[in-house]
Amino acid sequence: MDEQEEITPNSIENSxxxxxxxxxxxxxxxxxxxxxxxxxxxxxxxxxHLVNQVLLRLRNLSKIAMGFFVWAxxxxxxxxxxxxxxxxxxxxxxVRQFDVAWQLIIEMGQEGxxxxxxxxxxxxxxxxxxxxxxxxxxxxxxxxxxxxxKETSSSDFNMLLDTLCKYGFVKVATEIFNKRKYQYPPxxxxxTILIYGWTKSNKPAMAEKLxxxxxxxxLEPNAITYNVLLNGICRWARLxxxxxxxxxxxxxxxLIMEMKTRGVEPDATSYSIILHVYSRAHKPELVISKLREMxxxxxxxxxxxxxxxxxxxxxxxxxGIAEELxxxxxxxxxxxxxxxxxxxxxxxxxxxxxENALNLYRKLKEPSSLCTPSIHTYNILVGMFCKLDRxxxxxxxxxxxxxSGTGPDLDSYTLLVHGLCEKKKWRDACCxxxxxxxxxxxxxxxxxxxxxxxxxxxxxxRTWRRLKKKLEEESIKFSTEHQSYQFVPYKR
Length: 492
Known about the structure:
Organism: Amborella trichopoda
Largest sheet: none
InterPro entries: PPR_P_subfamily (IPR050872), PPR_rpt (IPR002885), TPR-like_helical_dom_sf (IPR011990)
Number of helices: 25
Helix content: 55-70%
Structural class: mainly alpha
Low-confidence stretches: 1-7
Shape: globular
Strand content: under 5%
CATH architecture of the domain at 1-115: Alpha Horseshoe
Pfam families: PPR, PPR_2
Protein name: Pentacotripeptide-repeat region of PRORP domain-containing protein
CATH class of the domain at 1-115: Mainly Alpha
Radius of gyration: 25 Å
Keywords: Repeat
């Protein structure tokens, strides 16, 4: 059960045409006329797959994506498919343009070649919950039945509960579960979802109550259920003073024994959870010992296992051993992920070791690299080099991030604007703040306040007024350009 994963209807594939169109759209973007770039696209042969691949590349640039979506829709001999609509609904949900997302759903229902599906509503429900709008999410779930013209299933209900729990709304999930469990008979997956929600909220008593209810109904827990409970024991446990650490490990070992008694064999995830406890307690020797024990039992470590161990070694300052483990991973056929490399970047950041951070980053960019930097990688490095006042490197990272199509996202802009404010580079901060709004991001309240206070203290009130006026004009003109859609101003 991954937390708050990036919600995308499908994934980016290699496509030179999609890369080219995306680059044209970004380079020729005019915030006041979103499809001025269309002049550069004359003669492009569109297909639903190509359009969807472009939209996926523009997932963090909602205004450019919407401009392209509308332009494509108006082209002769072309019709959007359900994937393009789903991707656009997902993009709009990220920036809380829910009224427009609903308009697209209605459009889908009116198109003869598109059949509405549970997937579309699942995307919208996830975006509502991610924004904290749980009532609207439940209402959308209830509307599914009439709009799809078929009964919602237990699988659909589990999807709703799962999303509520992943975003921290386990009380809402439990309330709706208790009201509707006779309509949607719970299975092992339903209980596992709710147990996960309560362990995530650090309420082990509620998780144990649901576990008992489940077993009393004759539903046998599986490895996933036990791993959720195991994670609950280990996740919030206090590891200091030392006896607290030993208490936590003993509880975890007892649960492992119970699993075996019930005939459920611990898997790589089970051991990864315990390894993570050792890692949090900064006990590298125990981490390495447990990893060795795993291998002796014939359990192959996963990316998550290796990453936990590498994280512990890096945070303990044992980067040399961590690098050896990285080599072992690749020789065993386990490709490191961006999260694995991020352990090194975080440690380099803490040490202000710009040289090794840059060397590793450039190694990741090589064509032979097994992994490419993720948006989180870029954000770690942007934050690090902003603090070190290495704006030349920040600019290099920013350009690489754009060219690769990885970002920037809201966090990237927030880090950069705050970093520039800390260095009192007010004009640069204003430029990126405006660009942030133009690209369709919603700045956090603290970003507004930081920039406003800084400009006032720097005696730049006129700059703030001009900035505010420009943003208001941009919002009005964007809404005017897409009058058929009910856009709300891009601000919090």
